[in-house]
Amino acid sequence: MSLLFELPSEIEELLRERSLVRIGIGESGAAVYRCDDAYLKAQRRNPRDVVYGGLRPELERLQWLADRCIVPTVLAFAQSESHDFLVTRALAGDNAANVAPDRIPALIDVIAEACRALHTTPIDACPFDETAATLIKQAEARLAAGLIDTGDFDQHRQGRDPHDLFVELRARRPPREDLVFTHGDLCLPNLILDGDRVTGYVDVGRAGIADRWRDLALCARSICSNWGSTSAHAFIDAYGAGHDWQLLDEFF
């Protein structure tokens, strides 16, 4: 297939014998392609965006997590004048958003256990600060740069002024945080399932040390959107667990 950008020579050589099928665009604006047993992610660098300015943050987290939990293996990383390119080996299975409806009840405990397992990743040597103070500063920078996608707000915040939401966000900053290693965007498409087991986590560019409720709130929202509110409540119960991390996520 034809691409909208030119691949660096090392990426082109790696993918030469593979077919490329575009599978979508994430919230970061990255284009993602399935390449047989691998994935190619391409993202235009934006120096104005402190969060989605390129793919190096995801590369660094994948490298750090390689021997700590199950994430895709990095096959290549390269840059052109305008884009970052990341190639990773595909994990076995499919993302959790694609499961058949009759399997949903049995998978709630599986996903809750995957969250608990991720949250036990030791954080002593973790270099990635995703605490509320850091994220609120990033949210303010993205707001000032005009990067907030108001059309992507949750339904009950549609039409709200992002500046007003930011005032609300600072006022509702949690007084304390239960710090663990978090995924940062723990929605169903970022959990890979093979049968009844989670085979890994993808799209870890926002992973790091944060309140565990950062993951739980976003995962519960994703489950509610895909599988209904009953399943979302069952997930929280199964995890064994707040703060409004869904409000904070509006800025990313």
Helices and strands, with pairings:
Layout: H1 9-14, E1 21-25, E2 31-35, E3 38-44, H2 56-65, E4 74-79, E5 83-89, E6 94-95, H3 104-119, H4 132-144, H5 162-171, E7 179-182, E8 191-194, E9 197-201, E10 208-211, H6 212-227, H7 229-239, H8 245-249
Antiparallel strand pairs: 1-2, 2-3, 3-5, 4-5, 6-8, 7-10, 8-9
Question: What attributes does this structure have?
Answer:
10 strands, 19% strand, five-stranded antiparallel β-sheet, 252 residues, three-stranded antiparallel β-sheet, alpha+beta, Phosphorylase Kinase, domain 1
Describe the protein's architecture and organization.
The chain has 252 residues and is of the alpha+beta class. The protein folds into 2 domains: 9-89, 2-Layer Sandwich (Phosphorylase Kinase, domain 1), CATH 3.30.200.20; 94-249, Alpha-Beta Complex (Aminoglycoside 3'-phosphotransferase, Chain: A, domain 2). The chain has helices at residues 9-14, 56-65, 104-119, 132-144, 162-171, 212-227, 229-239, 245-249; strands at 21-25, 31-35, 38-44, 74-79, 83-89, 94-95, 179-182, 191-194, 197-201, 208-211. It has a 5-stranded antiparallel beta sheet with strand order 1-2-3-5-4. A hairpin with a 2-residue loop joins strand 8 (191-194) and strand 9 (197-201). Helix 3 (104-119) crosses helix 7 (229-239), helix 4 packs antiparallel against helix 5 and helix 6 runs antiparallel to helix 7 (229-239). The longest helix is centred in the middle third of the chain and has 16 residues, at 104-119. It is globular, with a radius of gyration of 18 Å.
